[in-house]
Amino acid sequence: MNVLWLQSGGCGGCTMSLLCADTVDFPRMLEAVGVHWLSHPALSLGERPIFDLFEDCIEGRVPLDLLVLEGAVLRGPDGTGGFHRLAGSDRSMADWLRQLAPVARHVAAVGTCAAFGGIAATQPNVTDACGLQYEDDQRGGLLGAAFRARDGLPVINIAGCPTHPGWVLDTFAALAAGRLAADDLDALGRPRFYADHLVHHGCTRNEYYEFKASAARPCEQGCLMEHMGCKGTQAHADCNIRLWNGLGSCTRGGHACVSCTEPGFQDPGHAFDRTPKLAGIPIGLPTDMPKAWFVALASLSKSATPRRVRVNAGSDHVTVPPAIRKTRLK
Q: CA-CA distance, 132 to 85, in Å (whole number)?
């Protein structure tokens, strides 16, 4: 599968994350899933001049199987794309993308910036940054809502800031094997194998969440939702199931989930480490949960919180261990 990977308005963090894939032989792993780099700013050898390669792809002399964008498209000023002209070219990245996308068999946005605008589109968004096919949560972006690649799919949004290397490699492998269809993408174009999960799933703090035993500082073990801004019950990703570097996740490191796979996460309207509340109740509630239910269950849970859970929630280590009870298999 010939892959052309371009970088636009971003930090390169998704490429850095990809290099942390769980393997001792990264090139061999890519080869094993059928990936051949036509070009990547950091990972390919650059065997040929990049603009010659672009023209060969556009004219069909070189098959373009997968066009990848990392980073947001910078459309400013005034729709010219002049804020990002491709080095060595008098043309904007936006212009090149408009020509390359229609000839690509698949098109993927790697990272939330490329998918929805992300950090690059933080208000007041002076560069007029957007995603390939979305502007925040609205269809459109650079290519337009009606765009479809030659495979018939819209842009595949591998959202995350940065993306988990497994999300990228699994998507590439599925595309190379012809096993990614429209039903495998969610309503925002994200691969469902990770977007059908919530960061909350598998979180090591779930017992504290169940009893609403909350942390007030990052060093404490309690649930980060009530006070520390955690959106793990709303964010679509499998971060606590598919661990980063095989070891951890944001919540396991004491940091609240900021829902970086979601459109608009960069502008929450409040500090990332604070939970906005109304009448003492968090405004952002778990996905699909009516507010009245949450209030009722939270009250019951807090009244039933074991002392062990309550004490440990405010500590940086297990202070009260679980009680030992005599057990018998019946």
A: 17
Residue 330, domain member (yes or no):
no
Query: Are 189 and 207 within one domain?
Result: no
Q: Hey, what are 117's tokens? A: 């605008």
**Residues 280, 56: contact at Cβ < 8 Å?**
no
What distance in Å separates the CA atoms of residue 225 and residue 286, rounded to the nearest whole number?
10
Tell me the pLDDT tens digit for each residue of 88-102: 888 999 999 999 999
**pTM check: above 0.85:** yes
In a domain, 321, yes or no: no
Burial tier of 7 (Cβ tally within 10 Å: 0-12, 13-18, 19+): buried
Domain span at residue 19 reads 2-193
pLDDT in tens, 157-182: 999 999 999 999 999 999 999 999 99
In a domain, 324, yes or no: no
Euclidean distance between CA atoms 309 and 158, whole angstroms: 37
